[in-house]
Write a structure and sequence with these properties.
single chain; Spore Coat Polysaccharide Biosynthesis Protein SpsA, Chain A; 2 domains; 7-stranded mixed beta sheet; 11 helices; about 25% helix
């Protein structure tokens, strides 16, 4: 690029629309794909271009959208659109906050989440090389219904952009559409946008009318075609939302594959753009790796597993399980059919097994909760083994309490730990024990009641049932057997 070409950039993002075709109480630009809102994706792409300033224009559900923007891009300027409708008015409002700015202005739509940085860089390059007053991003599609048409002049330049509702029969037949992305030189944009009116089928102030006015002023208007038409199209309804999600996910999965992850079935694997996979991770079918989840080298995730905001250590295995805000240590194993709720921390080489639920639980290195257990609000030391059916009874109907289990504790099957309670290092508990008091280090804790058998109870209290008949038959057989033994003696 020549040294005398101005490379300054400001970005305007249009996010004021309601998006009625989404049929949702949530503003369209806040619907999510790949772990971010639609407008969040647009802001992330804009950030990668290193603009001097970024302005987002809002109106529908203003406070909700502004809050999401502040969270996604804190340095962004939020501008309110007034009662005058249209994209032209939205840009005009944004320009008031760029009054002292001279350079290029990139206009993006908050509902076009799939545009990649490279496409916009190429758009800017073409704009600057041609020294155009405006450059339009276009796309060629099979079905252009609903989109504005790019009408070319005899020399191949952009003569005008016609909205679908205002197009005549010949213009409707044009397959090159306006993708709603533009680059303008700031000064001619300011001058011409003030002249735009609302004399059109929708009664709106169209940004596309600036193109016509720039041509009438004998200024250059160029167009650059998007290499991927699907990526340049906006999201207007739930069908398009799911299609955008599919495209983005395919792009994300492919990126991790190229960086060294094994993903056996991309079609059933969903990975948010905010998640991170190390080389040599293996992802099996039916798996979702969502939000800020990180998976370290050599881990195996899936099949049929969902991880949300989790941290998985090297060489760990998570099978057919659901985990949220959990930390899984190196070499640890989870599942199948485990449920890790927020606050779960599983130490290195530990195990959370089949049909186990954990919550706010710290499980130490090498400790195991193999099966059929609930461990909530608890701390387990190193080398602990809980027998099948262990329960930490953490709630007393008023408050949650913690169970603390020391190192090398081995608990019997079907234990209930009634919190608050502490089990000392090296202690043992017997099968069926209900632990209500602290257990000293090295002690054996039992809660045993003598077993009492009430003979004939079923026949007396459940006469005529299959159980009573079976019991009577068994008694007759036993009595006959006893008689035979007596005769033999």
């Amino acid at each position: 690029m020549s040294d005398n070409i101005d490379a300054r950039l400001a970005v305007i993002v249009l996010a004021a629309g309601q998006g009625t075709r989404m049929r949702s109480s949530l503003p369209k630009v806040l619907h999510r794909i790949g772990g971010r809102s639609l407008v969040g994706h647009v802001l992330e792409t804009a950030r990668a271009l290193s603009p001097e300033r970024t302005v987002v224009v809002v109106r529908h559900e203003r406070d909700l959208v502004a809050e999401a923007i502040a969270e996604a891009a804190p340095d962004t300027i939020v501008v309110d659109q007034d009662d005058i409708p249209g994209t032209g008015r939205a840009v005009e409002m944004a320009l008031a906050d760029l009054a002292d700015y001279e350079g290029d202005v990139l206009v993006l739509s908050g509902d076009v989440p799939l545009l990649e940085t490279g496409t916009l860089q190429e758009l800017l390059r073409a704009h600057r090389e041609r020294r155009a007053a405006a450059t339009v991003l276009s796309a060629t599609v099979d079905d252009a219904t609903g989109y504005g048409r790019v009408i070319r002049d005899d020399a191949g330049g952009v003569a005008r952009i016609v909205e679908h509702k205002d197009a005549d029969e010949a213009e409707i037949a044009v397959s090159e559409i306006n993708a709603g992305v533009y680059v303008f030189q700031a000064s001619p944009l300011r001058e011409q946008i003030a002249r735009v009116g609302t004399a059109n089928a929708q009664g709106e102030k169209y940004l596309t009318d600036v193109v016509r006015l720039l041509r009438e002023a004998q200024l250059t208007v160029a167009a650059a075609s998007a290499p991927d038409a699907a990526a340049a199209l906006g999201v207007n309804d739930r069908v398009q939302l799911s299609e955008a999600a599919r495209i983005l996910n395919a792009r994300t999965v492919r990126r991790w594959q190229l960086e060294g992850a094994t993903i056996l079935d991309p079609a059933t694997t969903w990975i948010d753009v905010t998640a991170t996979l190390a080389p040599d991770v293996t992802v099996l079918p039916g798996t979702q790796i969502l939000r800020a989840t990180t998976v370290a080298a050599g881990a195996v995730i899936g099949p049929d597993t969902s991880l949300v905001d989790c941290e998985v250590g090297e060489g760990a295995t998570v099978r057919r399980s659901d985990a949220t805000l959990a930390v899984i240590g190196a070499g640890a194993t989870v599942g199948p059919f485990a449920y890790l709720r927020p606050g779960t921390q599983l130490g290195a080489d530990g195990k959370i097994g089949t049909f186990v639920e954990t919550k706010n639980a710290v499980i130490g290195e090498g400790s195991k909760v193999p099966h059929l257990s609930y461990v909530g609000d608890a701390t387990l030391g190193r080398g602990v083994n809980l027998g099948a059916g262990a329960i930490t009874a953490n709630y007393d109907d008023l408050a949650k309490h913690r169970t603390e289990i020391g190192d090398e504790v081995h608990a019997g099957s079907h234990n209930v730990f009634v919190a608050p309670v502490r089990i000392g290092d090296g202690a043992k508990t017997g099968a069926g024990a209900v632990i209500r008091k602290d257990v000293p280090a090295g002690a054996l804790a039992l809660s045993v009641a003598p077993q009492r058998n009430v003979e004939g109870w079923v026949e007396k209290n459940r006469p005529g049932t299959a159980a009573a008949d079976a019991a009577a038959a068994a008694r007759s057989a036993q009595e006959a057997d006893n008689g035979a033994q007596e005769e033999d003696r």
